Every structure is written in structure tokens, then in C-alpha cells.
Amino acid sequence: MPPLRPKRARKLCDGLVLWTAVSKTFENHLREFLKQFFRAPLFIVVVPLLVGCLDAPRDNSLDPSSPYFQNSASISGQVSIRDQNSGIPSASVQCVEQGIFVTSDSNGNYAFGHLSSGSLTLVASKTGFVEDTQRVQLNAGASLKISFALNADPVATSENIITHKYDQYYPSPVYTVDVSASVTDPNGIADVDSVWFEVDSLLYPMVYSINTKLFETILYKYDFPTNTIDWLVGKSLTIRCKDRYGAIGAGEPFFVTRVIENEATPTYPTSLNNDTTGSTPLFKWLPPEVTFNYTYTLECLRVDAGTETLVWTLSDLSSTILQQQFPDDGSGLTLTSGNYVWSVAVVDNFGNSARSKETAFVVR
Asked: Which of 225, 250, 275 is where one domain is finished?
């Protein structure tokens, strides 16, 4: 660094002296101001105020520093039938993590209060429905709306099984089993996907009938392992059903009541005697050898070129009756000339039946 010239050095010294004087004056003024300020009453007011602010009550329940802080929240909603607008009463809704549950009211509404925040698992259930599970994240002080739509199990509400024997000259008697069931589903009948008749481990599909509004199937003796419908006697039978979502339901066990083997025997007119009759024949028969209560059902069919057409039937005839005049209603109906067959069936109180062989006659 080059040496300062005398004139320039003198100016620099004068500046330093001036700065020192100004700084000393500013320091004296600052000292006087602070002395006056701390003597004033304002300081007495401000200090307690500041202290009071630091010690102010915290009564906000959402403030974690408040003694009133609550780490709780609520959940409410409705439990309803899937695909329907109706609520499910008396359904159970459980909060798994907190081990508590509530029950829905008559409209399916439920509510949880004072739940701890966090990740929660809710399970809605009721007998006859598939339970539904939902997982939610619940924040402190939050109020969530969570609803459930439960899929109902399809249910068989009624079952019926009837056995029939149809005797014939050749080749052998025909045996059938008629099974029918009424199946409902709270989600609607359209939700029912499949229905089966179950015996042991065997499942027989059933078809819905629009006319009867029942699921039905007809089985023959060859459909069973022993080639006889007697195989069903004494076994527990069940109707099983499944809906579109895979829910499985079943009805109450039911049983075959009887297989009737002994039938009544037609005696007039018969093909054995090549009988011919007038237009209003008198049908006669012998009773079966049975001990249960029963009635008779008569059928008369016209035969044209090998095709049989039913022309008359009469059911619920007392077991004490052994003959019946055609017609039975005083209508004046007559049989026209031609070939006919007729039969008599024994029917018990459950609808099981055994029909005699058809026997032919001629109307002149």
C-alpha cells in the first residue's frame, strides 16, 4: 500500500474525530430514552399483559395442548339390502379394533360416537345375509358417513316331493318323483341363479315355472343309484339355492312320505273281456290292499290312431266308492263312438299315487 500524502491524511483524521463525537452523542441520547421509558406506567401494564398471554386458558377441544382435547370422532350410516332401497333392522355393525358394536334401528340406521381416531375396520352383519367389511381412516374430531349394502342369502321357503307309480302291461311300471320348491331372495327373485334338489352328495337341477312360480324337477327311477325311487325313502332331502353373487342358501330337510305299490284294479269295462259300452259307461274297480287313508282319481281317454286324448277326469272320490257313472255332473255329456282307455289311481293325503294299468273298451 502506497504512503498517504500529508493533505489526505489530515482529512482522514478530521473525519474520525467527527464520527467519534457523533457516536458519543447518539449513545447518550439512547441511554436517556431507555431510562425514561422504563420509568413510565406503560411498562407496568405491558409486562403483566405479556405474562397473562403466556398463561391464557386453552379450552379448544381440537387443540392438542388443551385439557379439553378429545382424540375422538364419530361414524354413522345405514345398513340396507343390496339392490333394494329398504334398510335392514337389527343388523350388527362392529368396530373391530375397538371391540364395540351397535345395532341398526328399524330403518337400518346406526351410529358410533366417541371413536378413537386411526385406521378402523367396520363389519356389518345379520343372520341370512353375507357380511360386509369396510376399512376407513378416521381423523380426530371427524364425522364420517359409512353405509353398507348386504347381499341376502336365497332361501327355500317350502319344499314338496311326491312319488308316482304308473302301472302298465309292458315293459314295466313307470316310477317318477316330482320335486317342487318355493325360493325367495330379499334382493329379488331375479337374483336367484340356481336351485338344486340335493340327496346325499347328488345334486339335481331345478327349473323355474312361470305358471306355478315354483322351481320344479321330475326324476325317474333310473336317475338314482339303485334304479328305484325306494332309494329315497328315509333319506334327508334338501333344496339348495345360489344367487348371482355366489351366496348359498338352503331349506329345511324334508323326506319322502311314501311310495305306493298297490293299486286298485279296474273290473269293468276291460280289454280282457273286450267290453263294449254305451255313451255313458259305468266304471267299476276293486280296492287296493293298503292301510292308509286315500282317495281315487279316474281318467278316461279317447284313442285315435294310437294317440290318447284326455276327455274326462274325476278326483277326490271316497275310498268307499267302487263304481262311478259317466258323466258325474249331470251335464248330459256322452262319449261318442270309438276306442277308449280308462284307469283308476290311488292317492294318499300327501299326493303320492299309484295308477292302475290302462284298460281299453269300445263305445258303440
From this structure: 250
Domains: count for the chain: 3
pTM here is 0.72
C-alpha cell at 361: 273298451
Residue type, 199: V
Distance between CA atoms of residues 223 and 179, nearest Å: 13
Residue 187: phi and psi, rounded to 5, are -80, -5
Spatial separation of the C-alpha atoms in residues 220 and 216, rounded to whole Å? 14
Number of Cβ within a 10 Å radius of residue 175: 21
Phi, psi (rounded to 5 degrees) for 149: -125, 105
Q: Which of 221, 250, 279 is the last residue of a domain?
A: 250
State which residues form the domain around 80.
72-152
d(CA 298, CA 284): 10
Residue range 188-227, pLDDT digits in tens: 889 999 999 999 999 999 999 999 999 999 999 999 999 9
End-to-end CA distance of the chain: 158
Alpha carbon distance 304, 315 (integer Å): 25
Helix (H, G, I), strand (E, B) or coil at 44: helix
Domain CATH for 347: 2.60.40.10
